[in-house]
Every structure is written in structure tokens, then in C-alpha cells.
Automatic annotation (TrEMBL):
Highest taxon above the source species: Bacteria
Keyword presence, ATP-binding: yes
Part of the whole protein covered: 1 to 224 of 294
Keyword annotations from UniProtKB, A to Z: ATP-binding, Nucleotide-binding, Transport
GO molecular function: ATP binding
Protein name, per record: ABC transporter ATP-binding protein
Length: 224
């Protein structure tokens, strides 16, 4: 599967040019989007996730014209935004079950199976009955990725997921992403260079809305 981004431009009403003719081709596996705060990463992520329209340009996922068929993209998308709220009094299991319904997993047995498998995969099985208000930052992010994986998405977007995690939780989270990125397209937005070098086979550097580099980490080092 391949995600193709063609000539995306976005200028906010305040005049900030967040995306300037962005072109990217992203294949199955872990793709890193590296850039400092304000580079345009979230704008690009939200555009791919069909939460925000660009001024011009195109996004294709396989043969799907994403901007023309937002509902169909959302059926195959898992999105972990930079900030997300969770009802603190609900358990991880209950929250996952609710999101599974929203994702259209209506069969109760299928839903229970997916929820259990994702709790297991994200190492939250033992904590599944606990109220998430008591979760650590790392546990919340792992629950976030479990939510994003409901409905078996083929494109997963995670926006700055490691910001604020301690080193142990950060590695646990990156390992988890690496497992997911075996056979679907995963885009990891980050301002942490190590996230990209430890995990991603391909990455792009974005700054002031422009793609400065796109390729493999090894090729980037060789070019220095
Ligand atoms: P990043 O995710 O890399 O931090 P963003 O996409 O959030 O970058 O932001 C890119 C630029 O666009 C920044 O200068 C930011 O302040 C600006 N920006 C983002 N969202 C808006 C908005 N809704 N209105 C105006 N400016 C915005
Ligand atoms: P991110 O880096 O993920 O965009 P921010 O904290 O910069 O996170 O932005 C949070 C929200 O505020 C986003 O919805 C973004 O679109 C909006 N935003 C960011 N910068 C600006 C800005 N300069 N003017 C108006 N809204 C903005």
C-alpha cells in the first residue's frame, strides 16, 4: 500500500504558510515525519486524516482519492492525535469497547475479541478494569494506540506520541509501533531524532512547511 501526497499547500487565515508544496511518497512500514515545533507536522497529519482541508494539492491512498472520499479513508484510518481526552472514571476496557462501537465493530463477540487482543498487545490487560484517570502518561499513550488500532486500520497516524514519556515508556511505545508497522503504513510525527533513527526505515524532515529531505536514515547520514 502506498500513500502519495502531491503538492499540498495550506495557508492559515492569519497568513502562516503551514504547508508549502509538500510532496511525499510513503510505503508500508514505519515512516517518520521529523521537524521542530511549528514545522507543519500536525497540519500535514490532520490533512491526511481528512480532519482539515488543504488549499490545494492531492492525497492518494492506493487508488483512493482521499480528499474526495473522506468517509472511505476514515474506514481504514487509525489516528492518534497529539492530545486526546479520555473520561477519567471509565476503565480502559470500557473505553475501548465504546470506541469499537464508534468504529463500526457491531458484532459483540468480534468486539470483545478485538478489545482483548489490543489490551494484550499494548500490555494493558492487567490494568483493563482500572479507571484511566489513574493511568501514567505511557499507559495513556498505549491505550491511545489501542484505540487507533480498532477496526484493523491500514493507515495509522501518530502525532508526537513520545513527547513527555520517560525513557522506559518511550522504548515500550516505540517497540509497540515497530510491531504494528510490519504490514501497514504507519506515520510517526516527532521532533525527536532518536525516534526516527531507532524505528523508521524512511523519514522526511519538514521545516517551515517545506520538505527538506526524504529518504532512509542511513542515506541521510551518508550524505552528511
Ligand atoms: P507542528 O505540528 O510541526 O508543530 P503545526 O502544523 O501545528 O506544526 O503548525 C504549523 C504552523 O501553523 C505554526 O506556525 C502554527 O502556529 C501554525 N498553525 C497551526 N494551526 C493553526 C491554526 N489553526 N491557525 C493559525 N495558525 C496555525
Ligand atoms: P500542534 O503542534 O499539534 O499543532 P499546538 O499546540 O501548536 O499543537 O496547536 C493546538 C491547536 O491550536 C491546534 O488545533 C492548532 O491548529 C491550533 N493552533 C496552533 N497554532 C495556532 C495559531 N498560531 N493560531 C491559531 N491556532 C493555532
Amino acid at each position: 500500500m502506498q500513500l502519495t501526497i502531491r503538492d499540498l499547500c495550506k495557508t492559515y487565515p492569519n497568513g502562516v504558510r503551514a504547508l508549502k508544496h509538500v510532496d511525499l511518497t510513503i510505503s508500508t512500514g514505519m515512516f517518520g515525519l521529523l521537524g521542530p515545533n511549528g514545522a507543519g507536522k500536525s497540519t500535514l497529519m490532520r490533512t491526511i486524516a481528512t480532519l482539515q482541508d488543504p488549499d490545494s494539492g492531492a492525497v492518494e491512498f492506493g487508488a483512493l482519492d482521499v480528499l474526495a472520499h473522506k468517509d472511505r479513508l476514515r474506514e481504514v484510518l487509525g489516528y492518534l492525535p497529539q492530545e486526546f481526552g479520555l473520561y477519567p472514571n471509565l476503565s480502559a476496557e470500557t473505553i475501548l469497547d465504546h470506541f469499537a462501537v464508534l468504529k463500526g465493530v457491531t458484532d459483540r463477540r468480534e468486539r470483545a475479541a478485538q478489545v482483548h487482543a489490543l489490551l494484550d498487545q499494548t500490555n494493558l490487560l492487567a490494568a483493563r478494569k482500572q479507571a484511566v484517570g489513574g493511568f501514567s502518561g505511557g499507559m495513556k499513550q498505549r491505550l491511545g494506540i489501542a484505540i487507533a488500532l480498532l477496526g484493523r486500520p491500514r493507515l495509522v497516524i501518530v502525532d508526537e506520541p513520545t513527547a513527555g514519556l520517560d525513557p522506559t515508556e518511550r522504548h515500550r511505545f516505540l517497540d509497540l509501533l515497530g510491531e504494528i508497522g510490519q504490514d501497514i503504513v504507519v506515520i510517526l510525527s516527532t521532533h525527536i531524532v532518536e525516534d526516527v533513527y531507532e524505528l523508521c526505515s524512511k523519514f522526511a524532515i519538514i521545516s517551515h512547511g517545506e520538505v527538506l529531505y526524504s529518504g532512509s536514515p542511513a542515506a541521510a547520514v551518508a550524505a552528511l
